[in-house]
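The pair is quoted verbatim as follows:
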Amino acid sequence: MLLRHPKCGERSGLSTSAIIVGVVWGSLFWTVTFPPLTAQAQYSQPQFQSGPTPPGTSIIPGLSVAERYDTNIYLAPPSLLPPGTQLHDFVTTAQGSLKALHKDKNVEASLMGGVDGNVYAHTTELNYISTRVDTNVDLTGWAQHFAKRAQLRVYDYFRYTPTSPGFLQGGKSGTEDPFQRGIQGFRANTYSNTANVDGVYPVYRDLGVQAGYSFSLYRVGSILAATSAGISYFNTTVHAWTAGPRLQVSQTDSVAILYKQNLISQEQTTNANTATPGAAVFNTNTQSVTANYTRATSFWTFAAGGGVTLIEPASKAFATGNIRVSTNPERTTVLQLDLTRQASPSFYLQAGAMISNVAQVQVIHMLDQHLRLRASANYGFNEIVPTSSNTTFNNFVFSTGLNYRVTRSLSVDLTYDYNNFETKSPGISYTVNRNVVGLMLTAEWR
């Protein structure tokens, strides 16, 4: 029921996604996540808390109503749509959400999930319902009962939508989704899930072992509004594990040398969320070794790393690395900067791996007690491996908005988003420009 709109012409064909939603909500309800749920990337509220989670458990239901004007509702260029197709439309969104926060000496956890319905003023056949559940659990306090200085955390991101954003929206700093690295494909019914567990186990004084495992999947149903040959999606499964020594140099500084392996399995999909009959299975193996440095204080966190990644079966090696800077979310001005270059799965147009370069920056400034200004910029350049395939993706997204808190429970958001996405490949090349202006009214019963 969550995946179909009574008037929707976009039948997902993803019956298993309803089961996944139920499992996630049932088993993780008492835990995890910081970001608020939104129907579209352009309605993402700031991804930082206004303050630390107070001890105890809080259940916060929410309801929001939004109106937006979208200049490209198909996420596709006019040249690849039927002649006379109207690209622009007004969209009304109604959303119900539930946030659960818990904190004690052993666990700090949050969960955010909900469902939203989207209704178009003119193109009513595109009406749809989307769902999202984001979770994040810090179990460090519990782990330290077994070993001093141990660390442990778990997070999970699930989303179903026909209009998936190109970049991770609302994720807590230090988390990632391998399918949101800047690729913005045509409108298609998709769901994805990334589950991750990682931690540090001390072995001798300040020396420990850092390790982690994540399981990610990406599934595609019907591809909508594409009339040109050459548009392909790939059902993708990724198993990734990381391990290596970590040394706590001082109270604020640490270094680590980590080995990471991604095992990627893919099949090309049809419009019924099944593999194309007789289609080959694409298996890709990426291995990387990275040296990392982290400095964390009460005011800000800085992390940097560099290394090399080998991609098979292409037998190509690439330099990779990352730089991350984030400030304390309680400050008047909050900054989050994220620069990464890494191997990620390619699931659009061509299977396999890509070298993904992503730069993201977000600034939130409190103008006064009730008014908050937000601005963010995201840029992604992705190149399919082998690079001789000449397939690249460029994506730039700029977002800004004002949030005014009318009362403790009621707030108003005015937002603007600009998106430029360019795809180049031997089979198909195009550019999509999109502007979205929106107004949203949100009520949360705290």
Summary: Residues 9 and 126 are 6 Å apart (CA to CA). The mean pLDDT is 85.
